[in-house]
Amino acid sequence: AGGGMAGSAARLLVAALLGALPAAAERELRFRPPAEAPVRLFTEPELARYDGQQEGQPIYLAVKGVVFDVTSGKEFYGKGAPYNALVGKDSTRGVAKMSLDPADLTHDITGLTEEELKSLDDIFNNVYKAKYPIVGYTSRRILNEDGSPNLDFKPEDQPHFNIKDEF
């Protein structure tokens, strides 16, 4: 085995470093995205793959063009769960209207009332942004209609984000 000593020394160092972290610090590290996390762009077919039908696959839901990983809420969003209809797509309108009607499971917010728009913002900030990690954005949010980059795009910040333990 070439360089056996160096290899095992490196493994020991890694083990020592990992062992030195208390569990809470390790959790901190795991959930803190890198300062400049690359922005992942989701097309509709890509997002559709995360619809909760595959056991062991993450479950994603987009609201206002922001893609959240809602896997930790799989009793709500998983296969056969009450809000499964919302996942794998941008369901902004459905969230605003608190509707699971297939016609409302769209990004389109045309014609929503003041009240529905306020409700949308409340749920977006106090449920999704507070509870679920952002994994990317829909192409509609990042790109213009013609496919060129939207220069006004700004990633959402999650300053008050904390993984709430549901269990």
Automatic annotation (TrEMBL):
Locations listed in the record: Endoplasmic reticulum
Gene3D superfamilies with a match to the protein in the record: Cytochrome b5-like heme/steroid binding domain
Keywords of this entry: Endoplasmic reticulum, Heme, Iron, Metal-binding, Signal
Pfam families according to UniProt: Cyt-b5
GO function terms (MF aspect): metal ion binding
Main localization, broad class: endoplasmic reticulum
Record carries keyword Manganese: no
Highest taxon, organism lineage: Eukaryota
Signal peptide residue numbers: 1-25
Gene Ontology cellular-component terms listed: endoplasmic reticulum; membrane
Record-linked InterPro entries: Cyt_B5-like_heme/steroid-bd, Cyt_B5-like_heme/steroid_sf, MAPR/NEUFC/NENF-like
Cytochrome b5 heme-binding domain ranges (all copies): 42-139
Family classification: Belongs to the cytochrome b5 family. MAPR subfamily.
Name of the molecule in the record: NENF protein
Organism for this UniProt entry: Himantopus himantopus (Black-winged stilt)
Gene (UniProt): Nenf
